[in-house]
Design brief:
Blueprint: E1 7-16, E2 26-31, E3 38-39, E4 42-44, H1 51-63, E5 68-73, E6 78-81, H2 84-87, E7 95-105, E8 120-126, H3 128-134, H4 140-152
Parallel strand pairs: 1-7
Antiparallel strand pairs: 1-4, 2-3, 2-8, 5-7, 6-7
Length: about 160
């Protein structure tokens, strides 16, 4: 297995509210399996699945709606390593390589984190800086890179 194959292909999304761009509030969810860990929705890309297919499937699975408009895409794959306690449960992977999207909720979209297999216990809309302060330490560099890119592009 090559080093590249040790990173699970994944899609992640920064979700802005339907009030965007007047309000640049970002959706952040609290994981239900890790104490006080907040994150952006994300999930694995299935074999043979296109990245945007995975994006909309994961939105439905994690927040109960895929009623979004894609605003932008981070221009490259970005990776992080799992901390040891998570790596044990994710074998053979040692981390994830992610494709990030900035998406806007449609006005009529309804968030429901009580999905078939809930991953989150709570959610809120926060500023970009609050998202960085609340994020898990092992994801902080990725979050900073992605948020800073979207800020530089004038999107956040």
């Amino acid at each position: 297995m090559s080093k590249k194959d040790l990173y699970r292909p994944n899609v992640a999304m920064i979700i802005v509210s339907s009030c965007y761009p007047q309000k640049k509030e970002i959706f952040l969810a609290q994981r239900n399996d890790l104490e006080d860990v907040w994150q952006f929705p994300q999930g694995g890309i299935d074999d043979g699945e296109e990245v945007q297919e995975a994006l909309f499937r994961e939105l439905l699975e994690e927040i109960g709606t895929d009623m979004v408009e894609v605003i932008a895409e981070f221009p490259q794959w970005i990776s992080y390593d799992f901390p040891p306690r998570i790596a044990e449960t994710m074998k053979p992977f040692i981390g994830q390589t992610q494709r990030y999207f900035l998406v806007k909720l449609h006005e009529e979209a309804t968030i429901n984190i009580n999905t078939h297999e809930p991953e989150f216990s709570d959610y809120k809309f926060v500023t970009a800086d609050e998202a960085l302060n609340l994020s898990a330490s092992f994801k902080k560099n990725v979050y900073e890179n992605v948020i800073n890119y979207f800020k530089k592009e004038g999107l956040l």
